[in-house]
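Our working data are protein records whose layout never changes between entries. Instead of coordinates, the fold is spelled out as a row of discrete tokens. Here is such a record, shown just as it appears in the course material:
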Amino acid sequence: MMVVPSRHSLLMPHRILVIEDNHDIARLVELHLKDSCYQVDLDSDGRTGLQRAMSGNYDLIILDIMLPGLDGLEVCRRLRGASNHTPVLMLTARTTELDRVLGLELGADDYLTKPFSIMELLARVKAILRRTEQSRQAQTATQPPCIEINGLGIDPARRKVSVAGRPVELTAREFDLLYYFASNPGRVYSREHLLNQVWGYGHTGYEHTVNSHINRLRKKIEQDPAQARYILTVWGVGYKFSEPGHRQG
């Protein structure tokens, strides 16, 4: 029987979708990405860009926030809501911290503020693709174990979570955060550490993004979020995941 190797094993160029309505910026980004041997598709509208992102097999999506049809935040929200985990590098001309935080909380992997240098864009693209490839290789080399703690079940291969047998729907980032916690029960993590390890970048000042994700996780997996059983607050330090058999209070 013939085995067809994957696109990555054949070292085929990474496919990148650029959703940007500024023609000059889009063409400039396309030109330099192609010079770096990436395969590039362009779209200038949020709705058609979302359709292309959902139907195409892309390695990265470069997504502007200010788009006609659907804005970039909504495009990112719908991608993650449909369990599309393609990495997203968000471009924004907005300078408010809220827009950047919203993008990261909706599942964007990184952001770049306009105006940006092409060298920085290419560096961010390479870093995201490198992390994605490292994660893929790690999953191929060793099958991550399922976790069962105090009625909470996590299946990393299928990215499924259940509480007392009841399935729980999580976003990609919520799942990553929960699995990171549950893989090391009892260990205390600072917000900065979680930000670096789960989000994969070194920006400081966005620790409240971690707080927002933990609050949403608690609402989904805890019977009483005010009396958390799984994700516990360690005052003045950060958070930890409860150890097997732990009972709060």
About this structure: The chain has eight helices and twelve strands. The mean pLDDT is 84. The domain at 147-241 is CATH 1.10.10.10 (Arc Repressor Mutant, subunit A). The CA atoms of residues 37 and 50 lie 24 Å apart.
